[in-house]
Every structure is written in structure tokens, then in C-alpha cells.
Design goal:
By secondary structure, the protein is α+β, with helices and mostly antiparallel strands. It is built from seven helices and five strands.
Length: 175
């Protein structure tokens, strides 16, 4: 079986991949940046096996990217990004932008979501930088919109409905 560590590698990329490099992990982080906090919403939006999701969430908590919280009665469980988790935003955005331009596509794929700076409504560049303000805004200062708000969403889960809604959604705002 292929391991998930890079023993002998003295490299920051190898160390980062040990934390976020497993299949599904970056998609879980992406959804957490969108504001997904509940296990059931992660599971439904990602179509991920529950055992795999449990494992990825546990590892993200163990590695300090997410914090697991419970209500006084013990439920519901939610997951919130830590400072380290929020710091993945520019990487996730850049990877998504790279995927839009370079990864193989299929004709049924929808147009990419649009990310803009909440303060000035300027669309972010491929690096997550706001050209108008000259800064790279924190994830909480980024709005996400569907490029064609009139088109029906391809998926019907709760997360997709919020992200496809007529109003922009601020990253990190709970869904």
C-alpha cells in the first residue's frame, strides 16, 4: 500500500502534502472555506464515503487546520477552520485557477465560480490578489458568486443551493 509520508524528504512541499495531499482532503478544505461546517453537508456536497470523510476530518483536526466543536448536549458536531486552515485559501484558489486553465475538462462542466474582494467587488486574479486594492484579501473578505446566476444548479444539495443562489456568498460564512 502506498504510504502518505515522505520520509527522508527535507522539503516544505513534502511536509505540506503529508497534511493535505490525500485524496479528498483539499476538497474538504475547499468546502470548509465555502463555509461548510456540518459532517452531513460535507458528505452530501462531496459525495464522499462517510468513512473517508471521517478520516480526513480527523486528520485535519489532528494537524491543526480544523477545530471540532459540539453543542452542550454533544450534538451537532461542527468543524471550523483554524488560522492554519484559513491560510490555505490562496493555495486552494490558485490550484482551482490552475485547474480551470490546464486540467482536462469535459463538456458538461459548469463555468467556474467567480471570487471577488468584498470591500471593492473587484474580481481576484489567479493568485487571489485584488488588482484594485493591491492586496491579497483574507478568505473572510472574499465573495463567491456563480458566473451565471440564472442557470439552474447542477446539484441539489444544500451547499450547492447556497453557492448557486442569486446573492454572493462570503467565504467562511456558515452554510
Amino acid at each position: 500500500m502506498l504510504g502518505n509520508t515522505y520520509a527522508g524528504q527535507d522539503c516544505a512541499i513534502a511536509r505540506a502534502l503529508e497534511v493535505v495531499g490525500e485524496r479528498w482532503t483539499l476538497l474538504v478544505l475547499r468546502d470548509a472555506l465555502y463555509g461548510v461546517r456540518r459532517f452531513s453537508d460535507f458528505a452530501e456536497h462531496l459525495d464522499i464515503p462517510r468513512a473517508v470523510l471521517s478520516d480526513r476530518l480527523r486528520k485535519l483536526v489532528t494537524n491543526g487546520l480544523l477545530v471540532r466543536t459540539t453543542a452542550d448536549d454533544g450534538v451537532p458536531v461542527t468543524y471550523e477552520l483554524t488560522e492554519a486552515g484559513r491560510a490555505t485559501w490562496p493555495v486552494v484558489h490558485a490550484l482551482a485557477h490552475w485547474g480551470q486553465g490546464w486540467a482536462p475538462t469535459s463538456p458538461e462542466r459548469s463555468a467556474p465560480r467567480v471570487f471577488s474582494h468584498a470591500k471593492c467587488a473587484t474580481q481576484l486574479d489567479q493568485h487571489g490578489h485584488c488588482p484594485a486594492c493591491g492586496i491579497t484579501p483574507d478568505a473572510g473578505d472574499v465573495m463567491i458568486t456563480k458566473p451565471d446566476p440564472g442557470a439552474p444548479p447542477r446539484r441539489t444539495d444544500r451547499v450547492s443551493a447556497v453557492l448557486a443562489g442569486p446573492e454572493p456568498h462570503r467565504l467562511l460564512s456558515p452554510i
